[in-house]
Predict the structure.
Amino acid sequence: MSELANQHSLVDELDARQNEVLLQLDDLNIQIESLLSEYLVADTPADEAAPPTTSQEAA
């Protein structure tokens, strides 16, 4: 295999690996966003029922 063909082959392989990593990052981002939205939704009622802070008690 010539040097130029070998370089193209390596570039193609790196490009394919990069695409795989980007897809994995997209999947992880979706999972993180989903978990955050679940946490924020689950956390909202607790905030409303939380006891007053000291600044609220002083008022």
